[in-house]
Amino acid sequence: xxxxxxxxxxxxxKTGIIQDAWDKFLADYSDTGLKIERTDIWIDLSKVPWVxxxxxxxxxxxxxxxxxxxxxxxxxxxxxxxxxxxxxxxVDETNWKEPNGAxxxxxxxxxxxxxxxxxxxxxxxxxxFRMEILHSIDQFIMRELGIDLNKFFKVDSFDxxxxxxxxxxxxxxxxxxxxxxxxxxxxxxxxxxxxSILKKLLELYTKLxxxxxxxxxxxxxxxxxxxxxxxxT
Length: 233
What we know:
Blueprint: E1 2-8, H1 15-27, E2 37-43, E3 50-52, E4 62-64, H2 66-80, E5 86-92, E6 104-111, E7 114-121, H3 125-145, H4 149-153, H5 158-163, H6 170-176, H7 178-212, H8 222-232
Parallel strand pairs: 1-2, 1-5, 5-7
Antiparallel strand pairs: 3-4, 6-7
């Protein structure tokens, strides 16, 4: 499971809180054998527009404008493609504009091929990581394996019965689906690696075609030779 963690620059003095919360999240998966990779980037999240979210008739629930999120994910996709499975925004508490004390949201839809969460950097950050990322797991398993976690756990709603159930049971539930997790995220990683190889081969082919179109008596420039060497590695 490959996670791009987008951190609010306002939280740069809270790396201890962030790491402690992350370690608690990892503990839920520690017996599964699932490889979890995290890539950090820091950006200013203070200017991101917030909008009201409709959810089960509740009022005053707010989160990132999904149009902004979609544009951000599009920009990641253009350069990174399937390098990540999830994009998680960690918003500093001072920039968190949801008034009801929520510790985070899973946005509940696909952005390109990513699942997206936003969590509040606070003493409860571990609850945000653990719950909001777990919310997305049924979507991944259904997309990659065609398996419905409602049927797997024999519940009417994975989100309401498992994710919103006792967090003390998270590790047990996650261990029950460990084989599904490994198959799902291995499949996604393999697809991305295959696409990366094809892109590299296409780049090499394009370079070779361009070189063949040069005049026979035109020597290769040093930079062109280096570019070919880089593509081969």
